[in-house]
Amino acid sequence: MNLTDRQYFALKRAHSLTGVVPIGLFLLEHLFTNSKALQGEAAFNAAAAELARIPYVGAIEALGIWLPIAFHMVLGVIIATTGQANLGKHGYARNWQYTLQRVSGVLLVFYILFHTWMTRFDSDYLNSVSAYAFVGEQISNPAVFAFYVVGIVSACWHLGNGLFGFAIHWGLATGRQAQRNASRFAMAVFLVLTIVGLNSLLAFAGKGIYPDWLTKPHGAEHGPVVYEGGQH
Amino acid sequence: MPRQNIELRIRRQDSPTGPSRWEEFVLPWQPSMNVISCLMEIRKNPVTKQGQKTTPVHWESSCLEEVCGACTMLVNGKPRQSCTALVDNMPDGPITLEPLTKFPVVRDLQVDRKPMFEALKIVKAWVPIDGTYDLGPGPKLSQSEQETSYAFSRCMTCGCCMEVCPQYNTRSDFIGPAPLGQVRLFNAHPTGRMNAHERLDAIMGRGGIVDCGNAQNCVEACPKEIPLTEALGELGKQTTVYWLKNLLNK
C-alpha cells in the first residue's frame, strides 16, 4: 500500500486511539454486563436483553465495535510483525511488557474470533432460551474455560498496558515520573479488570465471589436488587 | 583476587558478507586492563588458545574515554564501549566479544554505523545558521533548559540504544531512538526551534516516532544515561500538537 507520510502517521495514531475509544470503553461495558451474572441467571439475561434493545444497536455494534476491532486487529498484527523480540538478551521489565503486549494481541485475535462466533453468531446460541445457561454450558468444558481465562487476562492486559503506550504516543506522559505513574496506573487497570473479568467468568459457572459487604450499597438496608423473570 | 589469565571468546568475520566463527584467546593478566588493551595484546601475537596462528583481531576505537562511541561492541552480550569495559570489573570466566548485530559488519568487531548518521541527516539534527550576514548571538538558555539539553547533547551515536531496540531491525523502517533524541535536542534549542516543524515533518512518516514500540530498552542501555524515553514522550506531544494544528488550521 502506498501511503503518504501523514496518512501513515494518522493510521498509527488511529490504531492507538481505537484501542482506548471505543474498544477500551466497550471492554469496560462488557465486563460490567458480565458482572450481572453474579446476581444470577435472570439478572444477566435481562441485562443482555436490555443491550439488544439499545436504539440503533445494529449500527453501534457494526461501526462502534466490529469495525474498530477489525481495524485495530489488522494493523496490530502488522505492527507485531515489525518487531524483533529480544527478551532473552535484554530482560528489562518494560521489554517484557512490550513483548506481552504483542503476544496478548495475537492471542486476542484468535480468542475474539472464537468468542464472537460462539456467543454472537452460533445458531445454538441465538436459539438458546438463556444466554447465561448457554455460556455456563460452554465453560463446563475445561479447555473452553481455560481459553476464556487466557482471553480475559489477555484483553485486560492489552488494555491496561495499552494505556501506558497511549500516554506516551500522544505525549500525555513525557517526564520520567509521569511515565512511571502512567505505568502504575496501567498495571492497576490491568489488575482490577482481570479480577472483575475472571470473577464474572466464575459467575457463569455459579462460583462467582459476591460477598454482601462488597456488593451492598453503602448504608443501604437491602442487598442487591432481585430481578424477576428477566427474559424479555 | 585478580585472575591470572584472561580468556577471550571473539566472534570473527573476515569480510562484510563472509561467514562468522568463534576464536578463543588466552593472555596473561596485567593490572588495569580493558577490553581494548586485551585486543592490543592479541595483536602482538595472534595465536589462539588452541595454539593456532591467526590474523590479528580487527576493531575500531578512537577516544578511549567513552565519548566517541567508535569502540562499541557486545561485551558478554551487552552493548557497551570496550574502552570502559575494565577486565577487573567483569565476572570470572571468559569474556565474550561480538560485533553489534544491528549494523553491517565491516570486519571482526568493527561495524558500519552509517545508518545512524544517515538518520541524523533525515531528521535534520543541526541548527542551520549559514547565511550572508552575521546573525549575532542567539538567545540565552535558562539554567534548567541547559541541563536538559546537555543530557541529550552527550549522545555519541554509539548505537547501544539501536542495538537493544526491538523495533530497530531489518523488518522495520524505524530510525531508532538515537536520532529521535537529537530531534528533541535541536527542537529545544532557541535557534534550532525555528525549524522545529521541519524535524517534526521528518519524523511523522514511516520509520518515525509512531514506529516506537515503547519497549524502553534504549534508556536502559544508554551508556550516557540520556533520558531517551522522555524524548520519545516529548516528541509524541510535539507531533500530536503539530498534527492537530495542521488538521484544524489547513
From TrEMBL, chain A:
Compartments where found: Membrane
GO cellular component: membrane
Lineage: Bacteria, Candidatus Eiseniibacteriota
Organism: Eiseniibacteriota bacterium
Keywords for this protein: Heme, Iron, Membrane, Metal-binding, Transmembrane, Transmembrane helix
Organism superkingdom: Bacteria
One function term, GO molecular function aspect: metal ion binding
Main location: membrane
Annotated transmembrane regions: 65-87, 99-118, 145-173, 185-205
InterPro entries assigned: SQR/QFR_C/D, SuccDH_FuR_B_TM-su
Protein name: Succinate dehydrogenase
UniProtKB/TrEMBL annotation, chain B:
InterPro entries xref list: 2Fe-2S_ferredoxin-like_sf, 4Fe4S_Fe-S-bd, 4Fe4S_Fe_S_CS, Beta-grasp_dom_sf, Helical_ferredxn, SDH/FRD_Iron-Sulfur, Succ_DH/fum_Rdtase_Fe-S, Succ_DH/fum_Rdtase_N
Record's keyword annotation contains Oxidoreductase: yes
EC number, UniProt record: 1.3.5.1
The protein, known as: succinate dehydrogenase
Gene Ontology MF: a single term: electron transfer activity
Keywords (A to Z) from UniProt: 2Fe-2S, 3Fe-4S, 4Fe-4S, Iron, Iron-sulfur, Metal-binding, Oxidoreductase, Tricarboxylic acid cycle
Protein species of origin: Eiseniibacteriota bacterium
Domain spans labelled 4Fe-4S ferredoxin-type: 146-177
Signal peptide: none
Pfam assignment, any one: Fer2_3
Similarity comment text for this entry: Belongs to the succinate dehydrogenase/fumarate reductase iron-sulfur protein family.
Known cofactor(s): [2Fe-2S] cluster; [3Fe-4S] cluster; [4Fe-4S] cluster
Gene Ontology annotations of biological process type: respiratory electron transport chain; tricarboxylic acid cycle
PANTHER family: SUCCINATE DEHYDROGENASE [UBIQUINONE] IRON-SULFUR SUBUNIT, MITOCHONDRIAL, SUCCINATE DEHYDROGENASE IRON-SULFUR PROTEIN
